[in-house]
Amino acid sequence: TAFGLKNKSTMSGSHITIIKELREATGASLNDIKEALLESGGDTNKALSILKIKGQAMAQKKSAREAKEGIIAAYVHSNRKIGVLVELRCETDFVARNSEFQKLAKELALQIAATDPRYLKAEDIPDEIKAEERKIFEATLGDTNKPTAMRNEIIEGKLNKRWSEICLLKQSYIRNEDMTIEELMNEYTAKLGEKIEIGRFVRFAL
After folding, report:
1. For 11-49, what is each residue's pLDDT tens digit?
2. Is the dihedral of CA 201, 188, 195, 92 positive or negative?
3. Are 115 and 205 contacting, i.e. CB atoms less than 8 angstroms apart?
4. pLDDT by residue (tens digit) across 182-196?
5. Is residue 27 within 8 Å of residue 190, measured between CB atoms?
6. C-alpha dihedral sign at 176, 179, 184, 190
7. Which residues does 160 contact at the CB level (< 8 Å), separation at least 6?
8. Which of 22, 95, 128, 139 meets the CB 3.0–4.6 Å disulfide criterion with 90?
9. Residue of 131, 132, 198 lying closest to 171 (CA atoms)
10. pTM of the model
11. CA distances, 18 to each of 6, 28, 98, 179 (Å)
């Protein structure tokens, strides 16, 4: 099925809705959405995957750039017992003042308040903490007769799950469990056209 974008009057309402939903979900351009739908044969889920991969590629391409601008967002929970400060960086003051960028900063503050991550990414975890976590999971396996390769695979799986709990970028987004915070960041990079990265963050709790 072809999803032409040349003349909206020739498109069905369902096609327009699909394009709108994909644009809201990924921030991709109309041309990229059109190409993704054509490539996927009109399959919305496949088109979404294609656009996510493009977003990741764009984020990787921009990763070498410097993000010197940005904002600090604050959030205090209604019970006044949890507070968050998060630094979100971008390349230009123009993007820093963009409402979408500021919305992302707020979402990150809410995420941190809700999930209490200890680190930004797995690479930030001290080696001694990684070693301790590994020992814990090794102990849970006990003296099984499982082959070494299988034991290592199980332990690595458990470790990766643990990192996804305590590392902000690997956490599931609280508004969409099928998306990680890293994927959310990639979408905003594609949407705003600049490198976006999380700097420092702190969570206070009583």
Report:
1. 455 677 888 777 777 767 677 888 888 888 888 888 888
2. negative
3. no
4. 999 998 998 898 999
5. yes
6. negative
7. none
8. 95
9. 198
10. 0.70
11. 16, 13, 26, 19
